[in-house]
Design a protein that fits this description.
The complex is a heterodimer of chains A (about 110) and B (about 500).
Chain A (H helix, E strand, L loop, with lengths): L1 H19 L4 H22 L21 H31 L14
Helix pairs in contact in A: 1-2, 2-3
Chain B lengths: L6 H13 L6 H29 L2 E4 L10 E4 L1 H24 L2 H5 L2 H17 L3 H20 L4 H32 L4 H11 L3 H18 L7 H6 L3 H26 L7 H22 L3 H22 L2 H32 L10 H4 L1 H15 L5 H15 L3 H26 L18 H16 L1 H16 L1 H9 L4
Antiparallel strand pairs in B: 1-2
The chains are: A mainly alpha (about 110), B mainly alpha (about 500).
Subcellular location (chain B): Cell membrane; Membrane
Keywords (chain B): Antiport, Cell membrane, Membrane, Transmembrane, Transmembrane helix, Transport
InterPro entries (chain B): CPA3_Na-H_Antiporter_D (IPR050586), NADH_UbQ_OxRdtase (IPR003918), ND/Mrp_TM (IPR001750)
């Protein structure tokens, strides 16, 4: 299972990097989002995937799954949502004000 | 257990939340922010006193003891930085209250300014690596908003770049945390340090440390500084000053923390890489600083040189070098805020940032001119001023650690700094006055106070360095002996 996850994470990073290297702002934003998903999966995988029962008092199993990575991923996802939403707003505003979403055409604007 | 440790984070946070209620009453917002920042500084000063008297103070949030809960740790190094942060933040908000337009202030300028301070103080105080990430994000989200606040074309363009750079580096930060968690099975920095000391720092851990170095270098503009000169020239003066003073320093703080507390076992690999990065940063920064005739570009590249120079003290990894780094960090926070405020004032007065169009300002504004002269000398490390102490200790440390080339590059870069800032003085302040008072685009009314305060601080920090020495020595001592930090967090002394 860990091996499959490693390959999936690698694919997400590849796709994200490819999108970030493109010129359109919206594709860049999507790229950062895809990379973040890869990172979240990486945290889950690195903490160890399901190995035993839930870490609860009174459960019968002797081996437990580490619950901490889920807490970390939850926090990271919330932050990522906030940042992506903000980035989308800034990207949209940039498109409205500067009239283009092509990063090449952003240079050389008049108030410089 | 000492609950005061959390005050420097809680006070500005609660005030910031509270201020959102008073959207229309800008005067009240300003007063409350000023009071809360002063209280933050006072609580940090009290903590520094406690650290001096009875060792490193900690608080375990929610009463969960160290490796399980989240620890907040106040050691002398972080307290010195929190105090300096409060001082500079007060100066920045005084300047902002007179220089930021009312329309911007009404759209929650003060709350976001306070949230930025929350993130900065949180990063300095936290003892948990995931919490460090969270505090970084609090700081960064506030900075994304402050940099785009107002929404002019250039601000929006630079914000897109700045946000992208920081999202990518935050993703890498999480990657580093994930690997570190997989290897050590803990997130508490003191606990990680213990575990690594037990198993030894093998090649894998050194690689993880390089991931962290890349992340923090991006945030601190160490070597990966390509985004900085553009981003710091976009926002209004007060915001740019606080960015230049604080944001890169948080990255530097994180590098110091990680490479003195956690990854200190292989200094001939990691600290050498840090030294090389510092050298390249100083060289490129110096080239940038002397190449441009644009005021904003010159001071932007000066920030980069400062980062490279502070890091040299860590690369030397000697007591003298680290002492120098701490002195220079305090100096650099104050002087970069001062430099940005003065240059911002010059740009407001003349309406241009091209040095070739500015001349003879000192006739109309003698006090501004002479304060700029003091700033310029202090920046280059001329003896009685605050830059000198840090510079001499860092250079001594690098010589002591047989990194003569690094010290030499540092000294040459200071000459370049001196050249670049004196160039502004010679062409911008001296010479024929080309503009009259009526032609000026703004006035210095009310904004001279924070500049004067910071100038006074840079002089008194240079003359009164002796008074600071015991505190700096405690900080250096705990940086060089991570066992103190571990004992305070894990040892159950509380």
């Amino acid at each position: 299972m860990e091996t499959i996850m490693a390959i999936v994470i690698g694919l997400l990073f590849t796709a994200g990097t490819y999108l970030i290297l493109s010129k359109s702002i919206i594709r860049i934003i999507l790229g950062t989002s895809v990379i973040s998903h890869g990172v979240h999966l990486l945290i889950l995988t690195m903490g160890g995937l399901k190995k035993g029962g839930p870490p609860l008092l009174g459960s019968d199993t002797t081996s437990f799954t580490d619950a901490l990575p889920q807490a970390l991923v939850l926090t990271a996802i919330v932050i990522n949502f906030a940042v992506t939403a903000l980035f989308l707003v800034i990207g949209f505003r940039t498109y409205k004000v500067l009239g283009t979403d092509d990063t090449d055409k952003l240079r050389g604007i008049e108030d410089e | 257990m000492n609950n005061i440790v959390i005050l420097p984070i809680i006070i500005p946070m609660i005030t910031g939340l509270f201020l959102i209620l008073f959207r229309r009453n800008i005067k009240l917002q300003f007063l409350l922010s000023l009071i809360s920042l002063s209280l933050t500084g006072i609580s940090a000063a009290y903590l520094a006193y406690q650290v001096k008297e009875s060792g490193i103070q900690t608080v375990q949030v929610g009463g969960w003891s160290a490796p399980f809960g989240i620890s907040m740790v106040a050691d002398m190094f972080s307290m010195i930085l929190v105090i300096t942060t409060s001082v500079v933040a007060i100066a920045g908000i005084l300047y902002a209250s007179k220089s930021i337009e009312e329309s911007r202030k009404r759209y929650f300028f003060y709350p976001f300014y306070l949230f930025l301070i929350v993130g900065v103080n949180g990063s300095f105080i936290t003892g948990d690596i995931f919490n460090l990430f969270v505090c970084f994000e609090v700081m960064l989200i506030a900075s994304y908003i402050l940099i785009s606040h107002g929404g002019t074309k250039i601000q929006l363009r630079e914000t897109v770049k700045y946000v992208l750079v920081n999202i990518v580096s935050s993703a890498l930060f999480l990657v580093g945390i994930a690997y570190l968690y997989a290897i050590t099975g803990t997130l508490n920095m003191a606990h990680i340090s213990m575990r690594i000391a037990e198993v030894g720092q093998d090649g894998l851990l050194t690689t993880v440390s390089i991931v962290f170095l890349v992340v923090f270098s991006m945030k601190a503009a160490l070597f990966l500084f390509f985004w900085l000169p553009g981003s710091y020239s976009a926002p209004p003066t007060a915001v740019a000053a606080i960015f230049a003073a604080l944001l890169t320093k948080v990255g530097i703080y994180a590098i110091f923390r990680m490479f003195t507390l956690v990854f200190y076992h292989e200094p001939h690999i990691t600290h050498l890489i840090i030294g090389i990065l510092g050298a390249i940063t100083m060289i490129f920064g110096a080239i940038g600083a002397i190449a441009y005739w644009d005021l904003k570009k010159i001071i932007g590249y000066n920030v980069i040189i400062g980062v490279g120079f502070i890091i040299v003290g860590l690369a030397s990894f000697t007591a003298v070098g680290l002492t120098g780094s701490i002195y220079y960090l305090v100096h650099d926070i104050i002087i970069k805020a001062l430099l940005f405020l003065i240059i911002g004032t010059v740009i407001t007065l003349t309406g241009t940032s091209n040095l070739k169009d500015i001349s003879g300002l000192i006739r109309l504004h003698p006090s501004l001119g002479w304060m700029y002269f003091i700033t310029a000398l202090s920046l280059a490390g001329i003896p009685p001023l605050s830059g000198f102490l840090g510079k001499i200790f860092i250079t001594e440390g690098s010589f002591e650690a047989n990194l003569t080339w690094l010290g030499a590059i540092g000294l040459i870069s200071s000459l370049m700094v001196l050249y670049s800032v004196i160039k502004i003085f010679l062409y911008g302040f001296l010479g024929e006055t080309t503009i009259s008072e009526e032609m000026e685009k703004g006035s210095t009314k009310g904004i001279m106070l924070p500049i004067a305060v910071l100038t006074f601080l840079t002089i008194s920090l240079g003359l009164g360095g002796e008074l600071l020495a015991p505190y700096v020595n405690i900080a250096v001592d705990s940086l060089l002996n991570p066992i103190q930090y571990i004992d305070a967090v894990i040892g159950g002394r509380n």
